[in-house]
UniProtKB/TrEMBL annotation:
SUPFAM superfamilies from the UniProt entry: (Trans)glycosidases (SSF51445)
Family: Belongs to the glycosyl hydrolase 1 family.
InterPro entries linked to this entry: GH (IPR017853), GH_1_N_CS (IPR033132), Glyco_hydro_1 (IPR001360), Glyco_hydro_1_AS (IPR018120)
Entry keyword set: Glycosidase, Hydrolase
Pfam families: Glyco_hydro_1
Protein name: Amygdalase
Enzyme active site: 376 (nucleophile)
C-alpha cells in the first residue's frame, strides 16, 4: 500500500446528521420531522418507501431519533473529542424543523437558530470548519401533511425562505454548504429521501420525478442565495455514489450498468451542468411521465450550478440482466446490487471495495470537472466493549486505511478532492435500520437498540489511528 501526503489544507474530519445524533426531538420549539416518524424494527423500511401509517409517532413503537445520542446537549464534549483527533471539518445538518417548526412559520424559531450559533461557535473555537447540509432526510411533517411534501411547488418557496434565513444568520461562521443529502435517495426510499407518502392509485414514478424537479429548482435557488449572501462560501450538491459494475461483458449488462449509474447521475447532471440531460428527457417520454416545469425553471437551473460535488461512498454495486444471477442479491443494499464474487461483504451485506472508491472519484471528476468532497465513507459494524473497557475495531481501521489510500491515488490521478469527512465519527443511529448496533464511530456511545445505556463516550482503537492519519496528512496509515 503506497502512501501519499495529502494537501496542506485538506479538510479531514467526520460527518453526522441532525436526525441521527441530536435527539431532543421536540425540545426548544422544534417541530416533527421525517425521521421522527421512523420506528426501529421491521416496519421501518416500508415507511421509508412511502407507506406511512400516521403523521404522528405511534404508541408502542420505539423511535430512536427522539433521543438519539443526545448530541443536542452533549455537543461540547463530543467536539472536544473531535478536536483531539485533529479534525479540520465537521459535517453536520441543520434540522429544518428546529428553524421553522411547521415549515411555514411567519418567523424562525430563535431557540433553534441559537443552538446552531452555539454549535458553530464551539467548532470554530477548536479550529474546526462547519460543513453544513441544509436538508439531510429532513422535511417538517406539517409540510408533508398539508402539501404532500416535495410533490408540491410550494416547498420550493418555503425551502428558499429557510435557506436564506440560515445563510443570513451564519454567513460569518459557515463557508461550506450542501443543499440536499443523497438527493438520489428519493428514487429508492422516497419518504426518507423527500417526505413522499403514497396513496392507492398514485403514479409513484411521476410523483418522484416531479418532487425531484422541485428539489433541483430549490437547490439552484439556494445556490443563488448563498452566492449573494455569502460570496466567499462554497455550496455543493450531494450524491449517494458508488459505480455499477456490469456482471459480465455482455453488452446488455454493460448497458444496464450505464442506465443504473444514470439514475443517480441525473440529479448531479442537472445540479452541476444546469440542464436536463437527453437521456432523462427520453425516460420521461418513454414512461409517459408528465413533469410540470415553470417557464423560468430552465434559467434558474442553468444560472445557478453548484461549486463542488459532495458524495458518499460505501461500496460499489453490480448489475446483471441474467435472471439466474439476479437471484443472488446482496442483503441490506438500498440500491439493489447482485453479489460481486470478487468482493467481501460487511455483516449488513455491503460490499467492501476500496478500488471502487478510486473509480467512482475518477468518474465524477471526468464527468463534472469540479472539486469533489468526500462527505461520507465508513464501516458499520457491531463493536463490542471487552472486559478491560476497550474496543478493538481493527476491521474498521483496515476498511478505512484502504479507502484513504485509494483516495490518495485518485488525487494523484488528477481528481480535485478537497476533503474527507468519514461517516459517523461518533456512534449514531443508523439511518437505514434505526439500530445503534450498526456502529461507524471512532468513539463508542453506550446505547443499545432498545434505547438503553448511559450514553457514555469511549474511544475505540480507531480513534488514535485516525488522529495519526490526520497528523501525518495521510502518510501514516498503519501496517499493511
Amino acid at each position: 500500500m503506497t502512501t501519499f501526503e495529502f494537501p496542506e489544507h485538506f479538510l479531514w474530519g467526520g460527518a453526522i446528521a441532525a436526525n441521527q445524533a441530536e435527539g431532543a426531538y421536540l425540545e426548544d420549539g422544534k417541530g416533527l420531522s421525517i425521521v421522527d416518524l421512523l420506528p426501529t424494527g421491521e416496519k421501518r423500511r416500508n415507511i421509508m418507501k412511502g407507506h406511512v401509517p400516521a403523521f404522528t409517532p405511534l404508541e408502542g413503537e420505539f423511535y430512536p431519533s427522539h433521543e438519539a445520542i443526545d448530541f443536542y446537549h452533549r455537543y461540547r464534549e463530543d467536539i472536544a473529542l473531535f478536536a483531539e483527533m485533529g479534525f479540520k471539518a465537521l459535517r453536520v445538518s441543520i434540522a429544518w424543523a428546529r428553524i421553522f417548526p411547521t415549515g411555514e412559520d411567519a418567523q424562525p424559531n430563535e431557540a433553534g437558530l441559537q443552538f446552531y450559533d452555539d454549535l458553530f461557535d464551539e467548532l470554530l473555537k477548536h479550529g474546526i470548519q462547519p460543513v453544513v447540509t441544509l436538508a439531510h432526510f429532513d422535511v417538517p411533517v406539517h409540510l408533508i401533511e398539508k402539501y404532500g411534501s416535495w410533490r408540491s411547488r410550494q416547498l420550493v418557496t418555503l425551502f428558499e425562505t429557510y435557506a436564506k434565513t440560515v445563510f443570513a444568520r451564519y454567513k460569518d461562521k459557515v463557508k461550506y454548504w450542501m443543499t440536499f443529502n443523497e438527493i438520489n435517495m428519493l428514487l429508492h426510499l422516497p419518504f426518507l429521501g423527500a417526505g413522499l407518502a403514497f396513496n392507492e392509485g398514485d403514479n409513484i414514478k411521476e410523483i418522484q420525478y416531479q418532487a425531484a424537479h422541485h428539489q433541483l429548482v430549490a437547490s439552484a435557488l439556494a445556490v443563488k442565495a448563498c452566492h449573494e449572501i455569502i460570496p466567499d462560501a462554497m455550496i455543493g450538491c450531494m450524491l449517494a455514489a458508488g459505480s455499477f459494475y456490469p456482471y459480465t461483458c455482455n453488452p446488455e449488462d454493460v448497458y444496464q450498468g450505464m442506465e443504473k449509474d444514470r439514475e443517480s447521475y441525473f440529479f448531479i447532471d442537472v445540479q452541476s451542468r444546469g440542464e436536463y440531460p437527453g437521456y432523462a428527457k427520453r425516460f420521461f417520454k418513454d414512461n409517459q411521465l408528465n413533469i410540470v416545469m415553470e417557464p423560468q425553471d430552465a434559467d434558474i437551473l442553468k444560472n445557478h450550478t453548484v461549486d463542488y460535488i459532495g458524495f458518499s461512498y460505501y461500496s460499489s454495486r453490480t448489475t446483471s440482466t441474467d435472471p439466474e444471477v439476479v437471484k443472488n442479491m446482496t442483503s441490506g443494499n438500498v440500491f439493489g446490487s447482485v453479489a460481486n464474487p470478487y468482493l467481501a461483504k460487511s455483516e449488513w451485506g455491503w460490499t467492501i471495495d476500496p478500488k471502487g472508491f478510486r473509480i467512482t472519484a475518477n468518474q465524477l471528476h471526468d464527468r463534472y470537472q469540479k472539486p469533489l468532497f468526500v462527505v461520507e465513507n465508513g464501516f458499520g459494524a457491531n463493536d463490542e466493549v471487552n472486559a478491560a473497557g476497550q474496543i478493538d475495531d481493527s476491521y474498521r481501521i483496515d476498511y478505512l486505511k484502504r479507502h484513504v489510500a485509494e483516495m490518495g491515488e485518485a488525487i494523484q490521478d488528477g481528481c480535485n478532492i478537497i476533503g474527507y469527512t468519514s461517516w459517523g465519527p461518533i456512534d449514531i443511529v443508523s439511518a437505514s435500520s434505526g439500530e445503534m448496533r450498526k456502529r461507524y464511530g471512532y468513539i463508542y456511545v453506550d446505547r443499545d437498540n432498545e434505547g438503553k445505556g448511559e450514553l457514555t463516550r469511549l474511544k475505540k482503537k480507531s480513534f488514535e489511528w485516525y488522529k495519526n492519519v490526520i497528523a501525518s496528512r495521510g502518510t501514516e496509515l498503519g501496517d499493511e
